[in-house]
Amino acid sequence: MEPLSRAVTTPPGPKSANPLLGVLSAFRKDPPAFLLRNAREYGDLVHLRLARQDAYLVNRPEWIRDILVTHQSNFVKSRVLERSKRLLGEGLLTSEGEFHTRQRRLVQPAFHRDRMAHYGSQMVECAAQARERWTHGEQMDLAMPLDMAIEMPRLTLAIVAKTLFSADVSSEADEVGHALTEILSMFDTLLLPFSDWILRLPLPLARRFDRARDSLDKVVYGLIAERRASGRDAGDLLSMLLLAQDEDSGVMTDKQVRDEALTLMIAGHETTANALLWSWYLLSQNPECEAKFHAELNDVLGGRLPGFDDVPKLPYTTGVFSEALRMFPPAWAMGRRAKQDYKIAEYRIPAGSILIMSPWVSHRDPRWFAEPEKFDPERWRPEIAEKLPKFAYFPFGGGARVCIGERFAWAEGALVLATLAQRWKFRLAPGQAAETKAVITLRPKDGMKMIGERVN
To answer: Is the Cβ–Cβ distance between 237 and 108 less than 8 Å?
Structure first.
């Protein structure tokens, strides 16, 4: 292996006449499009100067594997998740080192396969309640648009609350949705180098952030207080957290429980909600695929509600969800900061640099996906999918920090799609654009209003 000291330091990349900002302004306009454009122009390793930060876009599966798996000990989370601590504290997404390992070990049993059948029945129950609400609601009877950017988060929040916290948060769903939207809308500002000072000053943005965080805290601390007061062990994630022992002080503090519970509540509903709403959009734009999707549901389920054991029998339905995750990955990019100098090909990546891996870019690479802009659920047939290089497709990340709820999300995606589609098809409302807005997750820029059509 060539010594790091002899490696070249700077791969090709876009240049800027602004020595202070570099390409930051161009990046912030539309980050996924910016990354894709530069990957296609400069190749699999692209240097990006983002203000004072050197960043490198990495777009080769084996290099991504090395960063996330083989050499993961040389990397920590990047600036986005460092800043997320202002909301999430020391939860699974933001914590590092031994503390992260311990917390992940603590939470992992909540996602073991033996729990999934029970979760699956609760997922279907929540989805069936949603479809009945639409069936008898005035908005559907009057053919008024239903905003999937509101309805899908409301549904997935109900599912996370019921499965992991044995709670009904339907009355707080709108409050949680509004608070999360508020915080995500501020995230561009939170990533700026001087954002620490902004949030300490009595500015409108700081007050908005505090109000939104307080709204989320009210919900989560309310669940914690209610469970502590009852002393009940519900056998769910919340009980696991409350019964866990802290190595230093015994019982975990409410703040520690809050950080993990809020992290899993937000991560567990926000990403799946976005994948589901993009699934409905893609089905509405591809009627042949939609027809195959409904045919599979009819053939396998025959009108009955699905169950967890039906998921393997619904490969086309799972393919629909897989394609939504490919074309509109909720986690559209992930970053790692190098603790020590790191070598990729002939290049030396200096310590402190950010390495960016983007599912949005990799999932649109024609080397791995024929006609990458085409919605094709059949590309996920096993004989095709198994030929993909590892980390050409990585919507849930990888390595020790792979999404802990990945199995949960796959089951939820298939079961919610199947349950809702037994009663409804959806069409994009007139005048509704389908543009993306990349914050931490990939949301629709102007909502996703759709008209429901009842399935006979």
So the answer is: no
The Cα diameter of the chain in Å comes to: 70
| CB neighbour list of residue 432: distance below 8 Å, 6 or more residues apart | 145, 446, 447, 448, 449, 450
How many domains are there within the chain? 1
The token pair at 89 is: 């504290």
Q: Which pair of structure tokens corresponds to residue 84?
A: 């997320």
Is residue 56 within 8 Å of residue 43, measured between CB atoms? Answer: no
Residues spanned by the domain of 433 = 4-454
- At residue 170, the pLDDT reads 85
- Rounded to whole angstroms, what are the CA distances from 129 to 112, 170, 287, 416, 419? 26, 11, 26, 11, 10
Distance CA(81)–CA(76), nearest Å, equals: 10
CATH number at residue 373: 1.10.630.10
Distance CA 339, CA 335 (A): 13
Q: Determine the pLDDT at residue 2.
A: 46
CA 140 distance to own-chain centroid:
29
Q: Which two tokens stand for residue 322?
A: 């897989």
pLDDT in tens, 245-302: 655 555 678 898 999 999 988 888 999 999 999 999 999 999 999 999 999 999 999 9
Tens digits of residue pLDDT in 303-323? 999 999 999 999 999 999 999
pLDDT computed for residue 325 by the predictor: 98
Task: Report the 10 Å Cβ neighbour count for 245.
Answer: 10
DSSP per-residue codes, 88-109: H-S-TTT--HHHHHHHHHHHGG
> Smallest Cα–Cα separation from 215: which of 253, 177, 187, 186?
177
The two structure tokens encoding residue 72: 């993961």
Higher pLDDT, 209 or 141: 209
Count the residues in the chain.
456
Flag whether pLDDT at 407 surpasses 50.
yes
Which of 309, 345, 314 is closest to 417 using CA atoms? 314
Q: Whole-angstrom Cα distance, residue 150 to residue 134? A: 13
Which single residue is written with the structure tokens 């609760």?
Answer: 122
In angstroms, rounded to a whole number, what is the distance separating the alpha carbons of residues 158 and 267? 13
pTM of the model: 0.92
- Give the pLDDT score at 245: 60
Beta bridge partners of 246: 250
Beta bridge mates, 445: 447
